[in-house]
């Protein structure tokens, strides 16, 4: 499978097997796989290669090699839609909260905020957060937290 987006040419190959299942000490293993990724930067021509190994609980009759490769590729949708927003919008990587339950609690609050914005706004998370940050009253209206809330402002 070859992709040509994001300023690079990326080629992925996959090999799957069920023959290792008896040797792997992992519950419910269905298949083992190896994925080889090669990316060529279009501007510089620099080539990077990576070989990763994995296992799945899906048996060969449930998941073809192409399906496993597609599922593995889909993992980055989660990375981009969740972790990227957390880092860019909330500067999560720079957060100094490190002790007790603080890190987990603040992370849950951030994820909750992103979830509320994604389900109630037709605009992007970053744009909506920017608008909400400019006026505290809009936040209360957005969350319908007061009796005289004016409804959603950022749809």
Features:
39% helix, alpha+beta, four-stranded antiparallel sheet, 4 strands, 4 helices, single chain, 155 residues
What does this structure look like?
The chain has 155 residues and is α+β, with helices and mostly antiparallel strands. It has four helices and four strands. The chain has a domain at 1-73. 6% of the residues are buried. A hairpin with a 4-residue loop joins strand 1 and strand 2 (8-17). The protein is 39% helix and 21% strand.
Radius of gyration, in Å, reads: 22 Å
- Summarize the biggest pleated sheet: 4 strands, antiparallel
> Strand percentage, roughly?
15-25%
Strand order of the largest sheet: 1-2-3-4
> Helix fraction?
25-40%
Mean pLDDT: 83
Order of helices and strands: EEEEHHHH
Please identify the structural class as seen in this structure.
Answer: alpha+beta
- Annotation, overall tally of beta strands: 4
Tell me the distance between the termini: 38 Å
Please render the helix and strand layout as text.
Blueprint: E1 2-3, E2 8-17, E3 31-41, E4 47-56, H1 65-90, H2 102-120, H3 125-133, H4 136-142
Antiparallel strand pairs: 1-2, 2-3, 3-4
Brief write-up:
With 155 residues, this protein is an alpha+beta fold. It has helices at 65-90, 102-120, 125-133, 136-142; strands spanning 2-3, 8-17, 31-41, 47-56. The protein has a 4-stranded antiparallel beta sheet, with helices on one face.
């Amino acid at each position: 499978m070859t992709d040509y987006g994001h300023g690079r040419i990326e080629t992925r190959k996959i090999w799957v097997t069920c023959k290792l299942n008896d040797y792997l000490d992992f519950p419910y293993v269905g298949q083992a796989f190896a994925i080889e990724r090669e990316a060529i930067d279009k501007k510089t021509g620099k080539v990077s290669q990576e070989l990763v190994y994995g296992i799945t609980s899906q048996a060969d009759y449930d998941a073809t090699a192409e399906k496993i490769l597609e599922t593995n590729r889909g993992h980055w949708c989660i990375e981009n839609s969740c972790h990227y927003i957390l880092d860019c919008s909330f500067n999560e990587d720079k957060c100094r909260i490190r002790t007790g339950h603080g890190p987990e609690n603040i992370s849950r609050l951030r994820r909750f905020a992103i979830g509320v914005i994604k389900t109630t706004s037709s605009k992007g998370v970053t744009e909506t957060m920017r608008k909400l940050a400019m006026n505290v009253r809009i936040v209360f209206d957005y969350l319908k937290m007061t009796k005289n809330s004016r409804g959603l402002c950022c749809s």
